[in-house]
What does this fold into?
Amino acid sequence: MTKITKTLFILICLTGLLFAQEKTTALKNAPSFTLNDVSGKVVILDSLVKKGPVIMSFWALWCKMCIKELDALKPYYPELESLGASYLAISQDKSRSIPEVKPFAAGHKWKYQVVLDPENKLRKSYNVQVMPSLFIIDQNKKIVFTHQGYKPGDEKKIMEKVRELSGKCKACEGNK
Amino acid sequence: MKVINNIVVTLLLSLTFLIAQEQNITLGGANAGEYWLFVDSKLDSANYKEHIEDKLKLSLNYGDLTLRSIFFTWNPSHPNPNRLNYIDYLIEYDNEPVDILYGTYYTTFGRGLVLNQFLDEDFRNDNSIYGPKATFKFFYSELAILAGKPRNIFFEENTYKIKNDTTDQIRGINFETKLPLPEGFSLDVGGRYVRYNRRIDLTPKSFTELFGGNIGITIGPYEGYFEYARQLGCRPVLGGRLTGDGILFTSNFSLSGLGIVFQIMNYDSIGFGGAGYRYNEPPTPIKSGISVNRGTDEFGYGTSVNYSPLDNLNFEANYNSIKTHDKTQGVLEQILKVKSDPSENLEILGAIERLVKEQIELPVNKKTEFKPWVEATYNFGEFFLEAGYEHNFITTDTSKYYDHALSVSVGKPELFQFTLRYERRNQTPIWLVHKLGTEKSWPLAELSLDITNKHNLRIRVGGEKGGLVCSGGVCRFEEPFKGVKVVLTSIF
It folds into this structure.
C-alpha cells in the first residue's frame, strides 16, 4: 500500500472530523419526506414539525441495538406525547421483510409511528452511517440533535434533549 | 466510470461547497473509514496484511433537487492485486407527483421476485443500477419506469469483487395501485415487467423477461399478500426457452402485544443472474439469512409469533424452513427468545436457537447447531455492565464439537463501551481445518468511543473465528481474523 493512499485516507478522516465539528454550531435543515407507515397512513415531516419536535429513530429487525433502544424508550412514550413530540421509528428493512415489521412492533407494544423506508431513501437523505441513528428535529425543521449507536442509558440523555427542546416548543407553550 | 464523469462530479461538488452558505441549500454527508492490520492465515504469522477502506458520502439539497455522491476507495496491501475505487452520483428531482432521477440507484419491484437491486451496507453487498428512473404518482397509484446497467459488488475472502457483467442492461416498469377504502381496510394491486439484456450470450435470444403481479389485502389487524412472477429466458449454452415461476404468500396479524407472521414461497427457476449474484433476490424465510440456491429450486415456509403478556416481558418464537423440491438440500431454523426487564435498570435476554443445514456447508451432509445463550445488562446510571454467555453444540455426520463464548462489557452512556470476549472451540473437526485452521480460542477486546454525538471510533483487537455468514439469502464464508480493526464513522 502506498504512502500516498495512507495519507489520503487519514486526511479524509480528519477532514470529516473537522467539518463535522464546525457544523455542530450551525444547525442543518432536516430533509423533507413523505412516507407510509405500517398501517398505510401517509407521514409528512413538514406537517409533523408544526405540532412539535420530531424524533426519528432508524432501526431494522436485524439490528439488536436498535430494538434495545426502542424498547428502552418505550416507558417514556407517554411523556413524549405530553411534550407534544412525535416519535417515528423508521424501519430500514427491505421489502422482503415488510410483512414482519408491523407484527414485530405490535408484539413489542411499541406505540411509536413505525414508518417504512424499504429503499432506504431516508437513510441516504439523512446520511445514516450507523444503526441505530437518532435525530431530533425542532419546529423550525432544524436537526438539533444527532446520535449514532446505542448504549444502555442513552435513552435518558435523549429524553433530556427532548425536555430541553420542548421548552422552546410552541405547541407545548399553548398546552401550558 | 469515464474520466468525464469524474470531472463532472468533482466540479458539481466543488460548486456545492461554494454555494453551501446559501440558506435554502442543505449540505450533508457521512464518512466511514476502516483500517485493518491482520495475519493472513495462508501466510506465516510474520506476514501481516492491511486493508484500508473509505466511503465518503456527500449530499446537496436545494428545494426539490438533490445531488448525492459517493467516493469509495479500497486499497489492500500486497500480494492482493485487487483494488476498488469508484465515484457514484445521483441527481434527483422530486416534487410530487413526479420523481425523476439519473445516476446510481437501488430499487425493488414488489417483494423482489422480479427485480431486487438493493444495498446492504452492513453486509457489504451493493447491488445498484446506473441509469434513469422516473416515478409518477396519481389517483392512489404509482408508476415507475427505469433503465440502466446493474453493478453487484460483494465482499468475500477479504476482497471486494464485482460479481456481474456490468454491460448487462435492465429495463423495467412497475405499477401499483391502492383502492380507496374506509380506514382499516385496503386492497392493493400491482403488476410489473422487467427485461434483462445480455450483451454477451451464446444463445440466439440474448435477453430474459420477468413479469408478475401482486394483490394485497388489509382487514383490520389482518394483512395478506400474494405475489406471482414468471421468468421467460434462455437455457445457457444448451439454448431453448427456459421458463420459471415464483410464488410468495405472506400473512400477518397484529394486535397490541401480539404479532403473528406466516409466509410460504415456492421458487422454480425464478432467480435470475449468474454465479454468486442475482438481479432479483426472492425472499427466504430463514431469519439468519440463509437460502439454498437463491430462487433456483426452493420451497419454504416460516412462522413467527411475537407476544408481550406484560410491558416488561416479551416472547418470540420462530419456525422456518427452506428446501429444494427433492428435499436433498435445506435449512430448518427454530428460535425461542425471551426478554424481560425485572426492574428499571436490569434487562435479561435469553434464547435457544436450533439450526439444521443439509448440504449447505459442504463437505458435511448435515450440520445441526443447538445454541442456548443468555445476556444481562445492568444500568447503574453513570455506568452500565453487560455480560453474556453462549454455548453452541454442533453435530455433523462425522464430528461432534462445541463453541462457547463469554463476553463482559462496561460502558458509560453516550461516551464509551469496552468489551472483552473470549470464544473457544473444544476441538476442530478435520473437515473444518482447511477452511478455518486449527485455532481453538479467539480472545477479543473492543472499544467503542463516541468522540462526539456525530463521531464514533471503534477499535477491535484480537481474533474472530470466521465461518459462514448470511444476510437476506446471500452468504459468504468469512475467513478467520487475527489482528486489529479500526473504524471511524462520522456524520455531518
Chain B touches chain A through 93 residues (CB under 8 Å).
